[in-house]
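Fig. S4 source data, part A: sequence.
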Amino acid sequence: MPDSCAADISNVKTVLVDGKILKENFKLKADLGAPRRAVEASRDFLVSKFGQPEPGWLVKEAVG
C-alpha cells in the first residue's frame, strides 16, 4: 500500500475537472500567461513604490 502521507502535488500525474484534463503526464495544460502577467504587474508596482531591491531578489526573465 502506498504511503499517501508523503504525497505532494508532484506525485499527481493526471487531474480531471468537469471532464476536462487540467494536468496530464505530470504537466499542467493551463495557459499561465495571464496569472504570470498579473504577478509581474504586482511586482512592478511594488518596485515602483519601494525602489529597486538588492541584487538577486528579482528574476530578470520568467522561465516557461
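Fig. S4 source data, part B ends here. The mean pLDDT is 85.
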